[in-house]
Amino acid sequence: MNDRTTLARPWSLAREPEAAACPFRAAARLHDGPDIIFVPGEPHVRAAGLGGNWVITRHALQEEILLDPVRFSSHLAIGFSRLIGDDWPLVPLELDPPEHALYRKVLGPWFSPAKAKEMAGPIRALAATLIDKDSSRGETEFIAGFAQPYPVTVFLLLMGLPTDQMATFLSWEEDLLRAPSLEQRSAAALAIKAFLLELMEERRRRPTDDIVSYLLAYRLGDAPIPEERLLGLCFMLFAGGLDTVTSSLGFIFRELALRPELQSALRANPGLIPTATDEFIRAFGVVNTFRYAACDVDFHGVKIAQGDLVQLPLGLASRDERIHADPHVIDFARRLKRSLTFSTGPHTCTGMHLARIEIRIALEEWITRVPEWHVSDPSQITTATESVWALHRLPLAWKRDG
Where are the alpha helices (DSSP H) in 284-378? Predict the structure, then answer.
């Protein structure tokens, strides 16, 4: 049986030469084998004292783990609270069944397909406003000009937060996910916690119609949601709402900029856009998620010990040729678009319906309102390979009217 000694690999996506151009292709080099590796080192608080973590490279193996909360626990697997010496979980992300299902039900009315459809009108209006602001200039820095303010504004409205503090919130989020030192990440986690606690107190005094007021008023039987679970819910919403759709949009719109034939196909047949949305979601799984082994596990011939940390880079599942032919090719006619981009099983992303509508509307409005766009200066594109994979900058340009 293989163990951490025989499967040790000093792998870091940030050190892969191709990662700056495309983290998905760079990470997919791991598909050369073995399917499970052990990466020595403790770069994050979640791996403290463990000597390193396992990395699962294949769709089928990731799916098996995600569907098995008995052997692979989510408890504190992201680890944000540990950055500040606490031990409250992100809710429901770091909860295991059966408590997990209880809090998914709490969030359900805010993230259902019906709620996402209800929000489509305001989302479309926001997208149009952001696009029109830059359309006459013939250029934009896409991340700052659209990919961030578009989904983040939607999130801020749900949370009842002021849009004029967006820059501060995004700065905290960036440090939380990608700052080079644990001290910087800890400072960001502490700032977010303090802000959320103050926000919760403000909503207790003056409730509104936002999701925070809803959570404060919610009753589990006859009792309110416990304070730590409230903090865990709000922190999870904050961390999830400020980054993942932005990251996905960056990669999607760069792909369209580099492959004008894809834009042409959507312009010629806008009815393809829902299918294209699913294909882009399939191809760009930006999230790394984690589990702890809840017991000693013989996992496909690999000895994983109780307490070991297991990393699941969902972008590797996105590009697994064992499930998707030519996985690096964006193919709107692809029949199998099944993916783990939104995870699967108990922890399927709560916000997946909202995210899908945001991506679809972004594509519809850009194809309608903007002539063929391209990357204006490839040297300015910067890529993040820590935590949620992302583009920090994406300069786009197009021919101006007249």
Answer: 314-318, 352-369
Phi and psi at 258, nearest 5°, equal -85, -20
Sign of CA dihedral 349, 351, 353, 358: negative
Q: 37 near 2, Cβ under 8 Å?
A: no
Strands 309-313 and 52-56: parallel
Residues 284-294 have pLDDT tens digits of: 999 999 999 99
pLDDT tens-digit readout, 9-40: 999 998 888 998 899 999 999 999 999 999 99
Q: What DSSP character marks residue 289? A: E
Cis peptide before 98 (omega within 30 of 0): yes
**Which amino acid is it at 333?**
A
Antiparallel, parallel or unpaired: β 219-220 and 223-224? antiparallel
Closest C-alpha to 263, from 338, 337, 332, 355? 332
Residues constituting the chain: 402
Structure tokens at 341: 């981009």
**Are residues 238 and 215 in contact, defined by beta-carbon separation less than 8 angstroms?**
no
- What burial class does residue 394 get, using C-beta atoms within 10 Å of its C-beta: 0-12 exposed, 13-18 middle, 19+ buried? buried
> Can you list the residues of the chain whose pLDDT is less than 50?
402
